[in-house]
Amino acid sequence: MDLMTVMGHLVTLTFKIKSYLHSPKERRLAEFMHNDTWGQQYSYALFKAMSHMLCIGYGLYPPIGMADVWLTILSMIVGATCFAMFVGHATALIQSLDSSRRQYQEKYKQVEQYMSFHKLPADMRQRIHDYYEHRYQGKMFDEESILEELNEPLREEIINFNCRKLVASMPLFANADPNFVTSMLTKLRFEVFQPGDYIIREGTIGKKMYFIQHGVVSVLTKSSKDTKLSDGSYFGEICLLTRGRRTASVRADNYCRLYSLSVDNFNEVLEEYPMMRRAFETVALDRLDRIGKRNSVLQHKVQHHQSSGTLNFQESEIIQRIVQHDRDMAQCTQLIQTSLNPPPAPPSPTPVIWAPLVQAPLQAAAATTPLALALAHQSQLPPILFHHPLAAGSLKDPTWPSKESPPWSKHVQQLWFRARFSCQLYQIQIWV
After folding, report:
1. Which one in 7, 187, 197, 410 has a CA-CA gap of 20 to 30 Å to 128?
2. What is the DSSP letter of 285?
């Protein structure tokens, strides 16, 4: 733009000077404009110069004389060159404003050409289109190269921020050593699965485990009922510990945003944190026992840790707390459902997360599917849960909040309920 302005000014002065030097007709025209102010004369010359440079005309009058013709040709060439450079720079500037979207569009054009070349069916093309829309959301980044260019503290901070929802919804991470969480998060890889996709299949050799950031999956086994897992759960860790085959199939019920961890990275992280390995092994063995499946490798490892005294008091307490948490959640939920005995809820497009807590099978991840999360995802809760506690006959307890408690606000409600099981009292407070 600056170059075009300078060239326009020079051509303007050239036309102004030339009008005094050549043919009598030009001199008469110059004498005609002699009485005009300097600003008016410069404006006439600038108009003529820009008309030539932009190739839109000759100004107030066409070229007069051979010198004027050649000067007009020169100004047109200079103007066309400057104008082309201006358009090119403007186009590049507009494209650079959203380079990630442009990169996505270029990539998807290649995908479309690939689908056309291989003559893929229409339904498969639609699935590929939907996958790209949900996976990249119209923008594409080379995230690995971006993070590799940063120093380690900044890279870890960015990864922790990007995975903050996963950490917040998963007590396994929220209550663990921050160094372990950071080491684990740096190894995770983001993946998206469509409804109906089989994430893992029973009988195959496991090479990854998965953490659910968002979505609902069904755990399918031949020996037990289907189980639902949702945000904050994880699955697929047993075969990574035993290097065996998958004990169940997992299918996505809707669009699922998961983080995967390969077996090599899994073992690499757990080598640095042996207590977390023991926790994974103990929880995995407990899940296998509860669905009637045993694994000699895991059983030998857990018994070795217990008999050899390699577990200190703090580690043992943490591991037992994780296992007991899984069992307590299942027992408490089962008692609540039995006491309330709600009518069957109409079918809902959003799967209900009660089943894994009641049955507590293999894939009901210990300490990662809390009851509060189940209630938060429950599409239709029994109405009695929203009554005052004194109105729930079987759950009546004089120690509960009185009727004089502050009224429920418009946005925040407190849901209180208690359940007794095996001489233990469970009290859960859920904010919805």
Report:
1. 187
2. H
